Amino acid sequence: MSLYYGVSGIFSKTPFMKKRLDQIQDWPERAQAAKWSAATLAKDCGVSLRTLERHFLKNMGKSPKQWLLEQRHQKADEMLKEGLSVKETAGNLGYNHDGLDNFRRDFKAHMGFCPATITVSPRAQNP
């Protein structure tokens, strides 16, 4: 528990920070807004990266980095099924032009198949 000295005594930052994190319901949206960065996500939540790591390990059983990677690939799966190309999807998820191969490799490692093998749903083909 980290302590800090205030005008009227010694306070613990931890309970307030934990309570703040426990109240967040829109983690997937925050992840995307933070551009899939754990450090940015922590900053946007107003906590340290270490506090965010402890929260995720306790409540989700994984590190923020692992969780963010899973969320990023789930979002990629959705975009590809909606009919976006692999290149468009990679760009929308923050992979730069040179990162297309990284996207393909990361996606396959996480999902178990290449992003190009995803079949677009008929609904996405005929809006």
Write a short abstract of this structure.
By secondary structure, the protein is mostly helical. The protein is 61% helix and 6% strand.
Characteristics of this structure?
single chain, mainly alpha, Arc Repressor Mutant, subunit A, two-stranded antiparallel ribbon, elongated
Folded structure, characterized:
With 127 residues, this protein is mainly alpha-helical. The chain has one domain (11-125): Homeodomain-like (Arc Repressor Mutant, subunit A). Helices cover 61% and strands 6% of the residues. The chain is built from eight helices and two strands, in the order E-E-H-H-H-H-H-H-H-H. It has helices at residues 14-23, 27-33, 38-45, 49-60, 64-81, 86-92, 100-111, 122-125; strands at residues 3-6, 9-12. The chain has a two-stranded antiparallel sheet. Strand 1 and strand 2 (9-12) form a beta hairpin. Helix 5 crosses helix 7. The radius of gyration is 18 Å and the shape is elongated. The chain starts with a strand and ends with a helix. 17% of the residues are buried. Mean pLDDT is 81; it is low at 1-13.
What CATH architecture do you see?
A: Orthogonal Bundle
Low-confidence stretches: 1-13
Radius of gyration (Å): 18 Å
Number of domains: 1
| General form | elongated
Classification by helices and strands: mainly alpha
N-to-C CA distance: 53 Å
Strand tally is 2
If you consult CATH, what is the topology? Arc Repressor Mutant, subunit A
Q: What is the N-to-C order of secondary-structure elements (H for helix, E for strand)?
A: EEHHHHHHHH
- What topology, given as strand order, has the largest sheet? 1-2
In what range is the share of β-strand residues?
5-15%
The level of helicity is 55-70%
